[in-house]
Amino acid sequence: MTRRVYRCGSWRHAGDCARHEAAVTFRRITEAVAAHGGGSYSSSHWVLMVLTLDRDGYYSGSRWHDEQVAYGALSRMSRNLLARVRRAYDGEPARAWAAVVEAHRSGWPHVNLLLYAPSLARELEQTRRARIDAGATPRQSILVGGKLADCVVSTGWGLQSTAEVAHSTDAIAGYIVKLAGQHDATVGEISKLTQAPLNAPVRFRRLRSGKGFLPPRHKGRHTGVLLRRRPSREGDEEICSVNPPRDPNQTEAVQAAIAAEWQLIREGQAAPERDVPLVRYAVLGVLEPAGHSPVGFDSS
């Protein structure tokens, strides 16, 4: 039995929780793209779109009320855009797409969309080269235009949205790496952890994908019980089991964990100047001394 500080793994919580969730997102999208890397799939047919809102209603004629209204509309707008793109580009993408919601510094959201669309990718590359030859800047060369611009504007997005082609597997990985918050700068405009939409509504789904495109989250090999300390009415501390086990065979282990936590409380009361260690080992329900790693345990 190992005692560890609980991490919720939420992308909303800065530090270990956000980094953990970013790593999970990175792995799931990496595995999905790798699974679509063989056969008729080509690395140069992946498209990255950064969808921004027409906040002032310049094209739609209807100004957005506030960020919360915008967050509530993102799912519908994304579905509508994908449907329009499928009609315009030979049914692409099918299910090979993933989207992550990010936020600008102003708090307004935007959507990063990765999709497999060969017809669209070919059109985008031809348009980009023609614009560069005509003197356009790199950003101007990837602004949406033509049929794609019609799809974007008709579904409520703004013409400042961009679309570009990933020219290699490494480039695709670059998009995903930045999506996972692993580096500060890679290809395109995929966002970092610092752009997490912290002002999004409660239970907001930041990551979305085509049905069956992303692999499921990997479950850990270990299980346990969540224990929480709380002040008692008498002014000291008490232990409550937040998630009691469903398996009655685990009851004894849970009671041992509670007893071990009580021991830590007593140690803390006896030496209040000493911090409670983040990791503490127990063998057969008995806590080992602080800093001691039993034989056969990885203390890293």
Q: How would you characterize this protein structure?
A:
By secondary structure, this protein is α+β, with helices and mostly antiparallel strands. It has two domains: 208 residues, no CATH class; 61 residues, no CATH class. The protein is built from six helices and ten strands, in the order βαβαββααβαβββαββ. It has a five-stranded antiparallel sheet, sandwiched between helices. The protein has a three-stranded antiparallel sheet with strand order 1-9-10, with helices on one face. Strands 7-8 form a two-stranded antiparallel ribbon.
Count of helical stretches: 6
What gap, in angstroms, lies between the N and C termini? Answer: 15 Å
- What percentage of amino acids are in beta strands? 15-25%
How would you spell out the order of helices and strands?
A: EHEHEEHHEHEEEHEE
Biggest sheet statistics: 5 strands, antiparallel
In one word, what is the shape?
elongated
Instruction: Give me the secondary-structure category.
Output: alpha+beta
| Average pLDDT rating | 79
| Rg over alpha carbons | 25 Å
Low-confidence stretches: 180-193
Fraction in helix:
25-40%
- Biggest sheet: strand arrangement: 5-2-4-3-6
Count of all domains: 2
Quick one: how many beta strands? 10
